[in-house]
Structure prediction request, 203 residues.
Amino acid sequence: MRPPYLLLDIDGVLIPFPDVDGNTPPTHARHDVVPAGRSADNPVTVWLDPDHGRLLMDVIRTGLVTPVWCTSWRQDATTLIGPLLGLPTLSYVDLPRPQITTSHPNGYLWKRDHVDAWLGDAPAVWIDDDFTGLDRGWAAKRTNRGAATLLIQPDPCAGLQAEHLAEAREWAARLLAARSVAPLLRTKPRQPEANPHRGVQLP
Prediction:
């Protein structure tokens, strides 16, 4: 039984956006990285919290989830961002590069249709900072048809918090426990029917 996927965004989750004063959380350290297609003299500056690596590994080691990058960083997530946090090589959803000017060109997160196709009927907890009400409705519909889906939405200026991962871990544990019990309920032996003659003295 495959554990549910843990879909993990980066921008606004692991890399917080500056607040109105242009500040990032003091917990985050600066790194210069060179994504695919850029030259070494044109790096991208990112801010990462080293404690996120430990928190994520605590969840990954439980085996309750299957972690997958779901970010516009694509393969760079596993080659650039993951190693800075001490994470192992993770799979990633190979998202396209749409020509859009908003994250919600159709009123919902642009990644959603691609994620929906990628997941199929697999359960998932998805951590992203950019969901809308339409995305939450989509998650509810998937859950109702048997593909349990949890959306967790951090504040993009604060990023991922320990309680977000605790919520994902507890949700996955409940889901796996329910899936383990269901087959037992289906195969529970039938109780023998009452014998109407039991206890009756026959002539």
User: Anything to note?
Assistant: The helical segments are 51-62, 75-84, 112-119, 133-144, 162-186.
